């Protein structure tokens, strides 16, 4: 490229220089993968609802006693919770930081802008992520702590499950969040492969198909339980 | 209007039907510090055989005749090889993606046959804080030069060039390196990216040099320093959306970005840190 020789000397290094943008992406990818692994286990766990009240409550109890009696109480569960919380915080830190970097990188937008390649999934990573985060908070208050659940904290996990998803509004909110999550993972899996330097021209198509297939299976798996409750297949 | 340059078809021949009437909405900005705005212009007789830049030349002649300030835009080779030209056309970098099946090209290689009579065409400069506007449609892309200076080179002794066959390169690598080397540094990737990231440009250089034997000695330092420099210039971070590759006149692939990340992670693991 031939360069223009006009004014404007070396500009001051913006704050973004202090942490590499690629480092942030790696934090995002690694924390995202931890969350994805958890989600796979969580989705499979939810399907336990199909084997009835007893099994489901028992499974829930087991989660709280893994490793007993070698380890006291809910040690393993708490370790899982702490790892997940750290992953969520790291993920959000990286997302917000890259978001702000992107805003600084283009303070003035285009009057006319038409996308040529971006997918709906890639475009909704940020706001979709915010909605997913809001959902996760509500979801924990609802089913883990029972704070916003009509069965409250005293009901069994199975009762809270029924109380929550027999309500269509709650099921629909859940469904929207899970579908957004599916799209987040559709782009996320592909993006993480790129970020970790594992994609190439030969794999690109496969990675994209695999990302779509994975996101679809996970979404459907998560939707199966609440809709079965809503339609009375689980009661 | 008539064309004064001897373009492919100088003046509209009498037997030909009159050219297209177009409305251009162009970003006008006096200098880096002045505020800019979109200004409407009419052109009444545009030949479909003109290139996009010839069409702007016609507009400028008209503006000069009327005693107005011509529209500043960058260009040099007008053959799609130098990387100087580049504007957003109807919201697309170089107009790429205007039509299904339209080959990805540079602004200078876009022809007016891609438009039709009565069209309104919005023309804006690349938008990125690392590409400040100099005037109208011309932006300062020296940030790209500084990324290159940070590591986009190989160190070789000067003197007689060695025998090319002395260093064998696998065909596959040579081909891919060559594909990546076709990047002309136009900046369309940054302009099209929702994050205003320069990742595709930098990745093209990393891929080009990293695949060849001559690029090996500085491979780790190169990637670490070029990435640090692109952050320092204030470009955004890549989120693998793919607008860049779809807007690139040379079709630089997303694979180059994965290669950059791969090299970067390897170099960081080996303890290489950017020069400050
Ligand atoms: C269960 C929750 C979540 C999972 C499993 C998840 C997973 C992922 C994965 C795997 C990636 C790809 C990493 C990469 O780009 O290299 C990613 C990217 C991203 N995530 Fe999440 N995420 C979750 C929640 C969130 C939340 C709550 C937010 C918002 C604050 C968020 C915002 C983002 C953003 C902005 C990206 C980058 C988008 C891109 O690469 O284009 N995510 N996520
Ligand atoms: S990668 Fe493509 S769009 Fe970006 S500077 Fe190079 S040629 Fe232009
Ligand atoms: S003017 Fe050289 S590439 Fe367009």
UniProtKB/TrEMBL annotation, chain A:
Location in or out of the cell: Membrane
GO molecular function annotations of the record: metal ion binding
Predominant location category: membrane
Matching Gene3D superfamilies: Fumarate reductase/succinate dehydrogenase, transmembrane subunit (1.20.1300.10)
Transmembrane segments: 26-45, 78-99, 120-141, 161-185, 206-234
Gene Ontology, cellular component aspect: membrane
Pfam families (UniProt xref): Sdh_cyt
InterPro entries given in the database record: Cytochrome_b-558, SQR/QFR_C/D, SuccDH_FuR_B_TM-su
CDD domains with a match to the protein in the record: SQR_TypeB_2_TM (cd03498)
Alphabetic keyword roster: Heme, Iron, Membrane, Metal-binding, Transmembrane, Transmembrane helix
The protein's name: Succinate dehydrogenase subunit C
Protein species of origin: Trujillonella endophytica
Automatic annotation (TrEMBL), chain B:
A GO molecular function held by the record: metal ion binding
Gene3D superfamilies membership: 3.10.20.30, Alpha-helical ferredoxin
Pfam families, per database record: Fer2_3 (PF13085), Fer4_8 (PF13183)
A biological-process GO annotation: respiratory electron transport chain
2Fe-2S ferredoxin-type domain sequence ranges: 20-127
Assigned keywords, A-Z: Iron, Iron-sulfur, Metal-binding
Domain 4Fe-4S ferredoxin-type: from-to ranges: 174-204
Needed co-factor(s): [2Fe-2S] cluster; [3Fe-4S] cluster
NCBIfam families the record matches: PRK07570.1
Family statement drawn from the similarity comment of this UniProt entry: Belongs to the succinate dehydrogenase/fumarate reductase iron-sulfur protein family.
UniProt name for this protein: Succinate dehydrogenase subunit B
Organism of origin: Trujillonella endophytica
Taxonomic lineage: Bacteria, Bacillati, Actinomycetota, Actinomycetes, Geodermatophilales
């Amino acid at each position: 490229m031939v360069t223009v020789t006009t004014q404007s000397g070396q500009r001051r290094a913006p704050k973004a220089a202090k942490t590499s943008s690629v480092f942030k992406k790696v934090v995002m990818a690694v924390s995202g993968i931890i969350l994805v692994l958890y989600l796979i286990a969580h989705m499979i766990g939810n399907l336990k609802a199909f084997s009835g009240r007893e099994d489901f409550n028992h499974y829930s109890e087991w989660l709280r006693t893994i490793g007993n009696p070698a380890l006291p109480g809910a040690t393993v569960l708490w370790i899982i919770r702490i790892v997940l919380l750290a992953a969520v915080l790291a993920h959000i830190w990286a997302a917000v930081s890259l978001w702000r970097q992107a805003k600084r990188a283009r303070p003035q937008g285009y009057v006319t802008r038409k996308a040529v390649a971006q997918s709906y999934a890639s475009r909704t990573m940020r706001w979709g992520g915010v909605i997913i985060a809001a959902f996760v908070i509500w979801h924990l208050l609802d089913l883990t702590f029972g704070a916003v659940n009509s069965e409250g904290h005293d009901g069994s996990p199975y009762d809270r499950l029924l109380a929550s998803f027999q309500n269509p509004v709650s099921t629909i909110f859940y469904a929207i969040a899970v579908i957004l999550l599916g799209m987040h993972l559709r782009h996320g899996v592909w993006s993480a492969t790129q970020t970790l330097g594992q994609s190439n021209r030969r794999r690109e198509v496969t990675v994209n198909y695999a990302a779509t297939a994975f996101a679809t299976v996970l979404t459907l798996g998560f939707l199966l339980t609440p809709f079965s409750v809503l339609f009375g297949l689980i009661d | 209007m008539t064309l004064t340059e001897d373009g492919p078809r100088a003046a509209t021949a009498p037997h030909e039907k009159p050219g297209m009437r177009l409305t251009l909405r162009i970003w006008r900005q006096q200098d880096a510090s002045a505020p800019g705005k979109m200004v409407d212009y009419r052109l009444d007789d545009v030949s479909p055989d003109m290139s996009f830049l010839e069409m702007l030349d016609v507009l400028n002649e008209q503006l000069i005749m009327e005693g107005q300030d011509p529209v500043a835009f960058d260009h040099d080779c007008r053959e799609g090889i130098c990387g100087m030209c580049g504007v957003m056309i109807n919201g697309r970098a170089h107009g790429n993606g205007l039509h299904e099946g339209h080959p990805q090209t540079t602004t200078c290689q876009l022809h007016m046959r891609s438009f039709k009579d009565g069209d309104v065409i919005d023309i804006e400069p690349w938008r990125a804080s690392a590409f400040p506007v100099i005037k109208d449609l011309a932006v300062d892309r020296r940030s790209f030069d500084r990324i290159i200076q940070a590591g986009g080179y190989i160190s070789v002794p000067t003197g007689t060039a060695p025998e090319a066959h002395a260093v064998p390169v696998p065909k596959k690598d040579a081909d891919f390196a060559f594909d990546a080397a076709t990047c002309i540094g136009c900046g369309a990737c940054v302009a099209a990216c929702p994050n205003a990231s320069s990742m595709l440009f930098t990745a093209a250089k990393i891929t080009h040099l990293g695949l060849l034997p001559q690029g090996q000695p500085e491979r780790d330092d190169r990637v670490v320093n070029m990435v640090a420099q692109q952050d320092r210039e204030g470009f955004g971070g890549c989120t693998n959306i793919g607008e860049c590759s779809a807007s690139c006149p040379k079709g630089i692939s997303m694979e180059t970005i994965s290669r950059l990340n791969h090299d970067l992670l390897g170099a960081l693991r080996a303890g290489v840190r950017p020069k400050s």
